Amino acid sequence: MSGAEARWVRLTACENIPLREGRLVEIAGHQLAVFNLGERILAIENRCPHRGGPLADGIVTGQMVVCPLHAWKFDLVTGKVANHPESQACAATFPARMEDGAVLVEIPVNPPDDKTALAQCGHRDRPLRWVQRKPLLPATSGIHQAEQ
């Protein structure tokens, strides 16, 4: 955590986060996606900055996670988007470690406000809103019978 006062918090036992999977953890006003990569644990904010997708539900590939909504790929170490170079979007990352069979993460004591987060990551999108589509009207037969 750059310049901010932070503390290490014990989250869970290592075995509670399966290998190459993510788990959502809510702590101190943060929603984190915590991933077990085998040799290390990585933590990133759970909200995809593109459209608000839950990164904890994403597919892990190497040290990347793919957002389940629109397939944006994020580096779990830096938080930067990997497959859309034109985007300045990124997700905040949190130092994490394994110690005595437990997962620990470092979180800020006084979390920054949204303006500070914007300055650090650049782009932020609005929260995801689900839209209910109108049902399609029954198709009318566009086939004309051949004249006899």
Provide an overview of this structure.
It is a single chain. This protein has 148 residues and is mainly beta. The chain has one domain (6-121): Rieske Iron-sulfur Protein. Helices cover 5% and strands 32% of the residues. The strands form three sheets. The chain has a four-stranded antiparallel beta sheet, with no helix packed on it. It has a three-stranded antiparallel beta sheet with strand order 1-10-9, with no helix packed on it. A three-stranded antiparallel beta sheet has the order 5-6-7, with no helix packed on it. A hairpin with a 2-residue loop joins strand 9 (96-99) and strand 10. The termini are far apart.
Q: How would you summarize this macromolecular structure in one to three sentences?
A:
With 148 residues, the protein is mainly beta.
Topology (elements, then pairings):
Blueprint: E1 6-13, E2 22-27, E3 30-36, E4 41-45, E5 59-61, E6 64-66, E7 73-75, E8 93-94, E9 96-99, E10 102-108, H1 114-121
Antiparallel strand pairs: 1-10, 2-3, 3-4, 4-8, 5-6, 6-7, 9-10
What keywords describe this structure?
148 residues, mainly beta, Rieske Iron-sulfur Protein, four-stranded antiparallel β-sheet, three-stranded antiparallel β-sheet, 1 helix, globular
